[in-house]
Design a protein that fits this description.
The protein has helices at about 15-25, 60, 65-70, 130-140, 155-165, 185-200, 245-250, 295-305, 370-380, 390; strands at about 5-10, 30-35, 75-80, 80-85, 90-95, 95-100, 105, 110, 125-130, 145-150, 170-175, 205, 210-215, 220-225, 230, 235, 240-245, 260, 270-275, 280-285, 285-290, 320-325, 325-335, 340-345, 350-355, 360-365. It is of the alpha/beta class and about 400 residues long. The chain starts with 5 loop residues before the first strand and ends in a 12-residue tail after the last helix. About 40% of the residues are buried. The model has no long low-confidence stretch (mean pLDDT about 95).
């Protein structure tokens, strides 16, 4: 049995951040970082954009040079899977080897959903977007004139559509909900991006039910519930993710739409921690999962600090972004439960959508408007809430609101 201090299961952005932070804080016990992929830890956001377009090399994705881990006494195990986790015995099994641990950090991430096999979800030519191997597999499909059907009108689907349209593919996007971005954005934001994509030639079908993906071994198209058939050379699924909680469940940890953690990152076992897409955390009286790079990094670093000896509470400050064509969307806060929105338009395509609940500002979507985003983020984080009337007034100096 190998003795080790901290074992981190999942070598993504959260796992890497935890390992680096532990060493930066002077933690001197062994650290083992285990990843199922053969690549050292890398950033995911550019995958569906710059990396897919061929504008970023694989090496530029890596968070640290591979030599960093050996230099800082971090045992990096790549292409390795943890098959067992015992909270009682403080052990896990990786590649047939049993490791003991003082602490485990689960940063196991999530898995993209596919359609069921019975309706063509596993045919050759169907793809999901999550890791380097996904992009390497799909990139050769992006030839001018080829036909792409995207299932799902969330941010991943829209980002893939933007890349495909830029490369002059014939793109159809199918959304089962009444509109794109139904779950994550206001109608005004959806209208903005629908108009943007349609102006680039993307066909968007909303409130449209899919019957099946057609083909015998390889994709030939998709059939809609109304009988329409849309030819396709390949299909991309953008229908959400499932948190990877198998190890946590096996270890008897509390799991509810993710591994349940407290405000310090601990699971229901005080020696096991969780961060990133696989974990839920307390936020304003409820447990939520925050699917964002910022949360993965911040939560993992708080856990590292707590393992190193502090008792630090993690206070999430949600923020997100999406790049589509020449538009950068920046989101501050969480819009769940909003009951009012205010739109502020500027010049050169600048637009921001302000979300209110009970007249309190809770979130802002800013399209090509970084100044508004920064002001809104600071307002939300400081608990300041200008009235809807103030935001609606085009003469309002937003920056001055920070001093109010």
């Amino acid at each position: 049995m190998t003795e080790t201090g901290v074992v981190i299961v999942g070598a993504g952005q959260a796992g890497c951040s935890a390992a680096v932070k532990l060493r930066n804080l002077g933690y001197d016990k062994p650290i083992t970082l285990i990843g199922e992929e053969p690549h050292p830890p890398y950033q995911r956001p550019p995958l569906s954009k710059a990396y897919l377009l061929g504008e970023m090399s694989r090496e530029r994705l890596f968070l640290r040079p591979e030599s960093y881990y050996a230099e800082h006494n971090i045992s990096l195990r790549l292409g390795a899977e943890v098959s067992e986790l015992s909270a009682k015995d403080r052990t896990l099994v990786c590649g047939g080897e049993t490791l003991s641990f003082e602490h485990v950090i689960l940063t196991t991430g999530s898995t993209p959903r596919r359609l069921p096999e019975a309706i063509g979800g596993t045919l050759s030519g169907t793809h999901t977007i999550r890791g380097i191997s996904d992009i390497d597999a799909i990139a050769p499909e992006f030839d001018s004139g080829r036909r792409l059907v995207i299932i799902g009108g969330g941010y991943i689907g829209l980002e893939v559509a933007a890349v495909a349209a830029k490369l002059e593919l014939e793109v159809t996007l199918i959304e089962a909900a009444p509109r794109i971005l139904q779950r994550v954005a206001a109608p005004e934001t959806a209208d903005f991006f629908r108009d943007l994509h349609q102006s680039k030639g993307v066909r968007i079908l909303e409130n449209t039910q899919l019957a099946r993906v057609t083909g015998t071994e390889k994709v030939e198209g998709v059939e809609l519930a109304n009988g329409e058939e849309i030819p396709a050379d390949f299909v991309v699924f953008g229908i959400g993710i499932t948190p990877n909680t198998k190890l946590a469940e096996q270890a008897g940890l509390e799991v509810l739409n993710g591994i349940v953690t407290d405000n310090k990152g601990r699971t229901s076992d005080p020696r096991i921690w969780a961060a990133g897409d696989c974990a839920t955390l307390p936020f304003k009286g409820t447990q939520i999962r925050l699917e964002s790079v910022g949360n993965a990094i911040n939560q993992a670093e708080i856990i590292a600090a707590n393992i190193a000896g502090t008792e630090t509470v993690y206070e999430p400050k949600p923020w997100f972004w999406s790049d589509q064509y020449d538009v950068k969307l920046q989101i501050a806060g969480l819009n769940a439960g909003y009951d009012q929105t205010i739109s502020r338009e500027g010049t050169n395509g600048v637009l921001s959508i302000w979300y209110y609940r009970d007249n309190a500002l809770i979130a802002v979507d800013a399209m090509n408007d970084p100044r508004t985003y920064m002001v809104a983020k600071r307002l939300i984080e400081s608990g300041k809430s200008p009235t809807p009337e103030v935001i609606r007034n085009p003469e309002t100096d937003l920056k001055a609101l920070l001093k109010a």
